[in-house]
Write a structure and sequence with these properties.
By secondary structure, the chain is an alpha+beta fold. The protein is about 25% helix and about 25% strand. It has 4 helices and 7 strands, in the order E-H-E-E-E-H-E-H-H-E-E. The chain is globular, with a radius of gyration of 15 Å.
């Protein structure tokens, strides 16, 4: 099955997002990731902007197995998933699972949050970078408010 996942952080995103990508390698063999963008929080009161990306991958795991793994990653980064108000608080890491679909091409048409729609279009319309380019991660915000890791989608093979 094919899945989309959104990644976000508004607490030290320059630390948490690269670490999360490495930790995703525990379960995923290949992850194609969009650019990272800075977004204004929606439906929560905070001064901290989010850094978000969208990725896709193929997995034989069930949605519940993947969601459990993503929740464990969030907890490792300090998010308290048992807090009933956690969705309205700042987050060191937020990973949402979207899917599954049977065909990779269907990922481009899944309904997602409007602020991620541009990343979805980019992810399925732009050729991916090489792994060497992906590993040259310099997580400083550019003047265009994008992180250099994602000038174009990047495929990361975890071997």
């Amino acid at each position: 099955m094919f899945y989309l996942c959104s990644l976000g952080s508004n607490i030290q995103p320059h630390e948490h997002l690269p670490a999360a990508l490495c930790q995703l390698s525990e379960r995923l063999h290949t992850l194609t990731i969009s650019s990272f963008i800075e977004t204004t929080p929606w439906d929560m009161q905070t001064e901290h902007k989010f850094v978000n990306a969208l990725g896709w991958f193929e997995s034989k795991q069930s949605p519940s197995q993947l969601k459990q793994f993503f929740n464990q990653l969030e907890a490792r980064h300090g998010r308290n998933r048992s807090d009933p108000l956690s969705s309205a608080k700042d987050r060191s890491l937020d990973i949402d699972l979207i899917g599954p679909v049977e065909q990779q091409a269907a990922l481009a048409y899944l309904e997602i949050d409007p602020f991620l729609h541009l990343l979805q279009q980019q992810l399925f319309a732009t050729p991916a970078k090489t792994l060497a380019d992906a590993l040259a991660i310099n997580l400083q915000l550019s003047p265009e408010r994008c992180l250099p890791l994602g000038e174009r989608p990047t495929t990361i093979h975890f071997n």
